[in-house]
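Hello Y.,

Per our agreement to keep a running log of every chain we model this quarter, I'm adding this entry. I've kept the format consistent with earlier entries: sequence first, then predicted structure.
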Amino acid sequence: MLKILNGGIEAIVEDWPGRLGYLGKGMAPAAAMDNVALEFANLLVGNPPGEAGIEIAGGYFEAEIGADTVLSITGTDMKPTLNNQPVPVWESFEVKKGDVLKFSHFSEFGFRSYIGVAGGIDVPLYLGSKSTCIFGSYGGFKGRKLQAEDVLPFGKPYQDLKNLLGRKLKKEVIPEYSRVWDLRAIPGPNTCPDYVTEEGMDFLFSHSFKIQHSSNRSAYRIDEVKGNFFAREDGGVGGSHPSNIVDHAYAMRGCLNVCGNTPIILIADGPTLGGYINVLSIINADLWKVGQGTPSRDFIKFTMSTQEEALQARIEQKALFTEKSLA
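Predicted structure for the entry above:
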């Protein structure tokens, strides 16, 4: 078990791929904002790739270990310590009952860290997932962020703990973090020429957009588009602004929604339908980069992708989460 001493800015229980199959009921998939970091954290402690771990956004998380086990920490380097001594990132390490694990804040590159524990975090499944949906207040641990005095039970380890100590990732498979996150994307469904001009789409795929301070697990807001972006003067029966349409389903997770002049990446806890255009969709293999983008600091750049390229990238990414990636 793990006793929370300080929940920090935002710490929550998340798995992968989350709560699938409920978009039609208005329920987002939730799940890890950076699935790559979570899946590697699980690999290091012998769990299935999608097992539940702890997602830490921003930092300042602190917890007391309640049982001897093996942990891993991945994602941005928040300078974690165990009993005030540095612990490694991207490898597994032993912890003892009574040890205190503590995090500083996000580093120069990246925004979220993940804790993997042998056996995973043992919270109840809710509609097939352990993930927390903050905006719906369900799943995970009581449907909310972790706070002081919370106690999280561990699951039964999938492997002998002795075999898990000191596992490391090969250097070449550790993700490269940046301040400008290149996201491959496929245009549509509401795009050129009916909704957006050619100049508008060219702007999307040539401009670096700063991530706005109001970004969160529901929506990552970026810089506004220019006046020549829209192909219509208004939304017709959908509304007065050209970004308006008659309500339809959103291509969750990872569509670029445009509300007024503000492009918004709808992500883990985002809305499942609404009355605004969706001009492109980020490919599944690049969704993790959104989760590491730091609000008010980092930038996002879109690169054109085909469906075939998106499928191949997803296959290649999935192949990483096996023992072959261990040093």
